[in-house]
Amino acid sequence: MNTGLLLYIPYRHLENRVMTAIRAAGFDVTLAQARLLQRLNPGGSRLTELAEAAQVTKQTAGFLVDQLERAGYVRRVPDPTDGRARLIQATAKARAAAPIAEDEIARIEKEWEEHVGKRRMTQLREALGKLCEITDPYR
């Protein structure tokens, strides 16, 4: 099995568990919407930046933002640095889902650590962090 697949399978498992926890808590978001929400900058993001970070077209990002705005997860506000531009910001409703996701991630990482051992989990995190230095353009 190639390394990419070895990275993807555990990530997919984590993502599915997080989405299950978020939905169980009453947050009605799709996976595509959640992936977009994850990429919002704390102060807000322009649509073009958001589309690039989420690796979707501007049209797809706009469609997802429209859905999220109607559901109350984001709002569009004027960009203070450019009067013609708008920023997409997470609302309190969206921010309320973050602790649920973080708690589920902590549970998953604890399970993984119990399975592979603390030393290996530490080494895995260190190795992945090192790889991010050369693979993450948004770092």
TrEMBL record:
Claim: Protease is one of the keywords in the record: no
One annotated GO molecular function: DNA binding
Domain HTH marR-type: 1-133
Cited InterPro entries: HTH_MarR-typ, MarR/SlyA-like, Tscrpt_reg_MarR-type_CS, WH-like_DNA-bd_sf, WH_DNA-bd_sf
Keywords linked to the UniProt accession: DNA-binding, Transcription, Transcription regulation
Family matches, as SMART domains: HTH_MARR
Residue ranges that the Swiss-Prot or TrEMBL entry lists as coiled coil: none
Record-given protein name: DNA-binding MarR family transcriptional regulator
Native source organism of the sequence: Amycolatopsis thermophila
Organism taxonomic ancestry: Bacteria, Bacillati, Actinomycetota, Actinomycetes, Pseudonocardiales
